[in-house]
Amino acid sequence: MLSRKQLLKIGSSSLAGLMLALTINGCVVREDAETSGGTADVVALDIGSADAGEITVYTAIEDDQIEGYLAEFEKAYPDIDVNIVRDSTGIVTAKLLAEKDNPQADLVWGLAASSLVLAEQEGLLEPYAPEGLDNVKPKFRDSKNPPAWVGIDAWISAFCVNTVELEKAGLPMPASWEDLTAPVYKGHLVMPNPASSGTGFLSVSALLQLKGEEEGWEYLDGLHENIAQYTHSGSKPCKLAGAGEFPIGISFGYRAVNQKNDGEPIEPIFPEEGSGWEMEANALIKKDQIKPAAKTFLDWAITPEISEKYAEGFAITAVETNVPVPDGFPADPTAQLAENDFTWAAENRDRILAEWTAKYDGKSEPKE
Question: Is the pLDDT of residue 213 over 60?
Answer without folding.
Answer: yes
